[in-house]
Amino acid sequence: MTRIHPTDCQTEFVRRPLGIDERAPDLRWRVDTDRRGAKQTAYRVLVASSPDRLTVEDADIWDTGTRESVRPSVTYDGPPLEADTDYYWTVRVWDGENESDWSKPAMWGVGLLEADDWEANWIRRPAELETTDVADFDRGQFTYARREFDLPKGVELERARAYVAACHQYELSVNGERVDRGQSFSYPEYHYYKAVDLTDALEAGENAIGGLFTWHGEGQGRPTAEPGFICQLEIELADGSERTIVTDDEWRLREAEWNEDAPLRNDEIGEAVEIIDGRDMPVGWAESGFDDGDWDAAGVVGDHPTDPWERLIAQNREVVDRRLEPESIEQLEDDSYVVDFGKVYTGLPTIEFAEGTAGHRVEIRAAYLRRDDGTVHEKDGTQWTNMGYEYVQRDGDCTFQPFNYLGVRYLQIDDPGEDLDLEQVWLRALHNDIPDTHAGTFESSNETVDAVFELARHSALYGTQEQFIDTPTREKGQFLMDALNISAVSRRAFGERAMSRQAIQEFVRSHYRYWEAEGRLNAVYPNGDGKRDIPDFTEAFPEWVWQYYLESGDDAILETAYPVVESVIDYIAAHVDEETGLVTNLSGGVGGPYEEGIVDWPPEMRYGYDRDWPARTTVNILGANAFAKAAAIAEALERPADEIEGYRDQQVALEAAIRERLFDGELFVDGCDAAAASDHRSQHANAFALAAGIVPEDARDGVADHIADMGMRMGPMMVPWLCRALETSGRTDALVDLITNPDDDGWANILARDGTFTWETWHCRDPELPTSERRNRSESHAMGAPVLVSIQRALLGVRLVGCEGSHLEIRPPESGLESASGAVPTERGPVAVDWSREGERFDLEVTVPWNATATVTLPVAAAVTVNGMTVSAEDASVSDLEGVSAVRFDEGVSVGVCSGTYQLTLE
């Protein structure tokens, strides 16, 4: 009997979200089946108020009935959802006549939908209630807030949910245990809150709930706002009674043990060096019975919404942590210790002192690099960031753990006052709670390619925190191009959707907050320095929206983003010069190195690109690509035909102007004006043109040779264009060389220099630059990780073509590697490929997920064996091949297959 079982049920791309505020959530599922060619033909979804009511007879909320559809998703359109309520759902699917079992019950929780659902108040230190100028707040402040309450004994607790937010961050504790950390940074008019399940944390009798919250002041990734904390606890008991506990003047507050006069780590982040006095830590502050008699009554700013917090929106993404043990600990001659965690991680270093001495000050430094004498570099590789800490011990057992994460490999501990061993030092490693940290896998005949794949996976994982971050060290903000790059890896390495969706929504907000009249987006959002754009980043936004949609099938994001995409197109089109037909003097980035187009970043990563022209080649190609993606988005949204054709006409016209004005007959130059053109033929200009399909057919080989012969002459930010150019031109041998050459700029050189996280720049060899400029950039920039996607596409040979992974192209490379195997997550399930070549023989096994099809293209051959049966060019009949739709012999062997596992052999 054919087995069909729906699995991996998600609401809004999250398994069991606790507090969504979507009125019409998206429900999704996948199916496990052992039948070749399996696909969904229909589904039925039930929604109920409890798991035991998920039957056709008892479902009391919504029943879709049997609906014919191939899409494994449905948008809820049942009765209006109620705030602070949990919903349960299940799905059954049909594969023709085959009917599945019902899936295991899934759930989603609805948060607080309207302002009236909030009964809680925003609170902060009472002394700051009358502060009217944000500059008067104590910067880098940490505050404890607590409240005790009783629950009746002898009555079972059925459900407890806390809705909590802080400006800027918080840790929530219940009865002495930390239960949550949150939330993403945002502006007050779109502030996030989180829903936290406390059902198992509370108990009959006395309970205590508390928050440690912090406000930094403005910085990259941190809007200024004001200090504040809000919490609403909703409790349901088995006897039908309910209890609501909210932040108000019954809560007690006190300053935490962080020094508020500490210097800033740098002039970007907004965070202060953490100087912590362990003597002042209120031990047991989140436990019942704690004496808070000398704490202050909370200062009530106002019940929500109150100035400046206009809106609270639910966030169903969280940062998770794990205890990471060090690889080694070494005592130096001066009695300091250096701990090595083996790689750069994003996290919170922790030291458990056993013999603390009250008042003894321990200086601690996180670092990426060590000197020859064993000590750590204070700032090298960290973008000149102060990575230090100070901890003042109390007597006996005491623990140092900061609140704000940094990128950490090494930790130097000066004069700890006792002998330390490995068990006393560890790292609380942090990353976003993505679906599967190893959903994407890769292993090949080339160990360096494998190591680069893992370098990229690790970097993207730890570059994904509350949001996609520029770096965990200096600028923790979410830059648009960095986020685009990290999002691409996160989706393909981890099967992530929710973080990418959040990021796109935030940049949409940046448009409406700052740029609605100009058609642009902010370069970084949220942020403390307000309105700041980079023209190339704005141009790249339609690409991000389209690629996310193509992989996710998230129609809601297309609807949300499309008006902004339209504005971006108008912005680009307004700068098309009538005489040349080119995008000229693209406004934006005024007053610095961003003006009229960044090309690449940092400046040394431009490798001499000639920017001294009003029409820059990279800016124009990004513009043409934006027109193309706008057309694709409009078509997916079924917009009017003339609207779609308008975008395509703009694309065709701009591409023609690029070929006429910026192509010298052999190669592309860097820029031009109406009278002359640059004579510099950069790798950037030619890789962009080749990747975008703008190169004339008879010049493709010459352009491909040019960029391949140059090695690496693009920076980590823009190198995905180079990888795509080599892929689309079939130069996989050059791509492997690019990835594996340890003597040229690139990922292998990072590995050769003991790097464990992708860098902001390669180790640039420009002799005109001082050593500090060639080396002292950030060694923790995940924007350089998209090589992972290129490895999956070009070297494993997996390309996602149809929306939601509905159709795949499997095309192993003809050169560069002898074998490769791996998996790529898709919305329909993982696609797995294992291929190898030996002499004239080529073997491939592919597993295509349920509800998907694939075209497998192999090298030229006269015959192919599929699942033990041979098909020749003379007789390409597939009637006896289960799951095979066609076999064609043309420029290669092309085999069309449905879902299932297939073995193909060429000899």
TrEMBL record:
<protein>
    <recommendedName>
        <fullName>alpha-L-rhamnosidase</fullName>
        <ecNumber>3.2.1.40</ecNumber>
    </recommendedName>
</protein>
<feature type="domain" description="Alpha-L-rhamnosidase concanavalin-like">
    <location>
        <begin position="331"/>
        <end position="416"/>
    </location>
</feature>
<dbReference type="GO" id="GO:0005975">
    <property type="term" value="P:carbohydrate metabolic process"/>
</dbReference>
<dbReference type="Pfam" id="PF17389">
    <property type="entry name" value="Bac_rhamnosid6H"/>
</dbReference>
<dbReference type="InterPro" id="IPR008902">
    <property type="entry name" value="Rhamnosid_concanavalin"/>
</dbReference>
<dbReference type="GO" id="GO:0030596">
    <property type="term" value="F:alpha-L-rhamnosidase activity"/>
</dbReference>
<dbReference type="InterPro" id="IPR035396">
    <property type="entry name" value="Bac_rhamnosid6H"/>
</dbReference>
<keyword id="KW-0378">Hydrolase</keyword>
<dbReference type="InterPro" id="IPR016007">
    <property type="entry name" value="Alpha_rhamnosid"/>
</dbReference>
<dbReference type="InterPro" id="IPR012341">
    <property type="entry name" value="6hp_glycosidase-like_sf"/>
</dbReference>
<feature type="domain" description="Alpha-L-rhamnosidase six-hairpin glycosidase">
    <location>
        <begin position="438"/>
        <end position="787"/>
    </location>
</feature>
<feature type="domain" description="Bacterial alpha-L-rhamnosidase N-terminal">
    <location>
        <begin position="157"/>
        <end position="301"/>
    </location>
</feature>
<dbReference type="Pfam" id="PF17390">
    <property type="entry name" value="Bac_rhamnosid_C"/>
</dbReference>
<dbReference type="InterPro" id="IPR035398">
    <property type="entry name" value="Bac_rhamnosid_C"/>
</dbReference>
<dbReference type="InterPro" id="IPR013737">
    <property type="entry name" value="Bac_rhamnosid_N"/>
</dbReference>
<dbReference type="InterPro" id="IPR013783">
    <property type="entry name" value="Ig-like_fold"/>
</dbReference>
<feature type="domain" description="Alpha-L-rhamnosidase C-terminal">
    <location>
        <begin position="812"/>
        <end position="868"/>
    </location>
</feature>
<dbReference type="Pfam" id="PF08531">
    <property type="entry name" value="Bac_rhamnosid_N"/>
</dbReference>
<dbReference type="Pfam" id="PF05592">
    <property type="entry name" value="Bac_rhamnosid"/>
</dbReference>
<dbReference type="Pfam" id="PF25788">
    <property type="entry name" value="Ig_Rha78A_N"/>
</dbReference>
<dbReference type="InterPro" id="IPR008928">
    <property type="entry name" value="6-hairpin_glycosidase_sf"/>
</dbReference>
